[in-house]
Amino acid sequence: MRVMGVINLTPDSFSDGGRFLDMPAALDQARRLISEGADILDIGAESTRPGAQPVSAEAEMARLLPLIRAIRAESPSPISVDTMKPQVAQACMAAGADMWNDVSALRHSPDSLEAAAELGCEVVLMHMQGTPATMQQAPRYDDVAAEVTDFLAERAETAIAAGVRRERIWLDPGLGFGKHPVRHNLPLLANLDRIVGLGFPVLLGASRKQFVSAVAGPADAGDRLGGSLAAALAGAAAGVAAVRVHDVAPTVQALRVWAAIEAARSGSG
Ligand code: HH2
Predict the structure, then answer these.
(1) Whose CA is nearest to atom 11 of ligand 1?
(2) Ligand 1 pocket check for 10: Cβ under 6 Å
(3) How many other CB atoms are there within 10 angstroms of residue 224's CB atom?
């Protein structure tokens, strides 16, 4: 199980907005996440929170490229870029990034599929109902686990048909993206094995999300660590390949203990 550490270069992210806007602070955070055991860094410059202001490709690149170059100059750690724009992904991969994390599952631009195929990098296809501006207004599903699983299977096949290599594809249920915190996120967490069963590595982003407060009582985004760890362990039990988290050190610790218990279980069986 891998741990992806989040760095948001945004003024308005729900979880850590504004904290890492300047380069030295962002580079320090990257170093810290690596030292805490992050296997991958996920860097984003456009918040996807409901109603967030869109950011131009130029502004995204102005925030992302210096940080990618600075990390690359001192560390071989894999870098993922959280962007929906193919031109931003292209510039970031040229600057040394390794992975394209696309919350639109290559649907945002008509050029996205071709760009992903040409780049040849790893690509995360995430489920989202609607767009960030409107997605939380009235999310609707008949069977959320089945619909998300079918969507991800379809997007993977579409990407492969467009030339993206199968072994480069990751899938992500997109917790919180057009989902009611309880009615939709919880069944997805309970049925992750279905998405894992599609045969692609699965990324799970539960960290600090609102369902934690909906289930366990009001808490600011920064005070949702316990619930975020519970969700990460549910992901581990279901066989996800990586968790996307803000709190790397506690997540690494929780996953190591969980893995040790699992190893003892198989050792004693
Ligand atoms: N969640 C967020 C952003 N990007 N990418 C993937 N693949 N999966 C996720 O669950 C996911 C994601 C939202 O979290 P955060 O980056 O902290 O907030 P914001 O979008 O406000 O920047």
Answers:
(1) 205
(2) yes
(3) 23
Full set of structural domains in the chain with CATH: 2-267 (3.20.20.20)
Ligand 1 lined by 103 (C-beta under 6 Å): yes
Specify the ligand 1 atom closest to the Cα of 208. 17
Instruction: Kindly give the confidence (pLDDT) of every residue in the chain, 269 residues in length, as a single tens digit, with 9 standing for 90 and above.
Output: 999 999 999 876 666 666 656 889 999 999 999 999 999 999 999 988 887 778 999 999 999 999 999 999 999 999 999 999 999 999 999 999 999 999 999 999 999 999 999 999 999 999 999 888 888 888 999 999 999 999 999 999 999 999 999 999 999 999 999 999 999 999 999 999 999 999 999 999 999 999 999 999 999 999 999 999 999 999 999 999 999 999 999 999 999 999 999 999 987 65
Distances from the Cα of 141 to the Cα of 111, 129, 138, 183, angstroms:
29, 9, 10, 10
Index of the ligand 1 atom closest to the CA of residue 10: 22
Sign of CA dihedral 134, 137, 140, 145: positive
pTM to 2 decimal places: 0.95
Residues catalogued as catalytic: 209, 244
Residue 75 CA to ligand 1 center (angstroms) comes to 23
Cα(102) to centroid(ligand 1), Å: 10
Task: Answer yes or no: is the C-beta of 126 below 6 A from any ligand 1 atom.
Answer: yes
